[in-house]
Design a protein that fits this description.
Layout (H helix, E strand, L loop, with lengths): L10 E6 L2 E6 H7 L11 H16 L1
Antiparallel strand pairs: 1-2
Length: 59
């Protein structure tokens, strides 16, 4: 058995006049300018958070 832990990422579906759209919950939160930290911050997590902050700043 692999020692890797498998992540379960929930998806949400939203309705709009243009149709249905399904996205992972983290993308949906980012759309509302929410960054979720659910793990200790290491170099990899810090890089992801910085990329999200830069993306939000550019909007």
């Amino acid at each position: 058995m692999s020692s890797e832990r498998r992540l379960v990422i929930p998806y949400v579906t939203e309705q709009s006049p243009r149709g249905e759209r399904t996205m992972d919950i983290y993308s949906r939160l980012l759309k509302d300018r929410i960054i979720f930290l659910g793990t200790p911050v290491d170099d990899q997590v810090a890089n992801v958070v910085m990329a999200q902050l830069l993306h939000l700043d550019s909007e």
